[in-house]
Amino acid sequence: PAGSAAFLGLYLMFGYGASLICNLIGFTYPAYVSIKAIESSNKEDDTTWLTYWVVYGVFSIAEFFSDIFLYWFPFYYAGKCLFLVWCMAPVSWNGSQVLYQNIIRPCFLRHHQIVDNVLGNLSTKALDAASSVTREGNAGPPVP
């Protein structure tokens, strides 16, 4: 196990395709245990993995905007992989819990009402537009 971990660490630092390996580590195991959580009757594991996916999503969006700069740093993918492993670690102080409780949740609580209002308005406009298109489509072609 220690040899495998050392090889993986070195590969993430110097190997071709380190991005793919890192993303597989950050996605494959969490996806598998998320499916198991969905299929179990225990709600606690659902919350654990939903929290992971929220943090993973926020991280992915932040990485999209900063990746052009970050991937030039040596050992970026090794650091990213360690970050993702910390986020999924089976301890109460894992990255997902720490980041969600201290950053994401407070931000959500401050802004969720505004987002709900915007989404509600967009939903209403989309339904109105769809209804209008449906009415116009059912009217048939104009008579000359």
Automatic annotation (TrEMBL):
Keywords: Cytoplasmic vesicle, Endoplasmic reticulum, Membrane, Transmembrane, Transmembrane helix
Cellular component, GO annotation: clathrin-coated vesicle membrane; endoplasmic reticulum membrane
Membrane topology label: Multi-pass membrane protein
InterPro entries for this protein: TB2_DP1_HVA22
Principal cellular location given in the protein's record: membrane
Residue ranges that the Swiss-Prot or TrEMBL entry lists as coiled coil: none
Chain segments annotated as transmembrane: 6-29, 50-71
Annotated compartments: Cytoplasmic vesicle, Clathrin-coated vesicle membrane; Endoplasmic reticulum membrane; Membrane
UniProt record similarity statement: Belongs to the DP1 family.
Name of the protein this chain belongs to: Receptor expression-enhancing protein
Species annotation: Rynchops niger (Black skimmer)
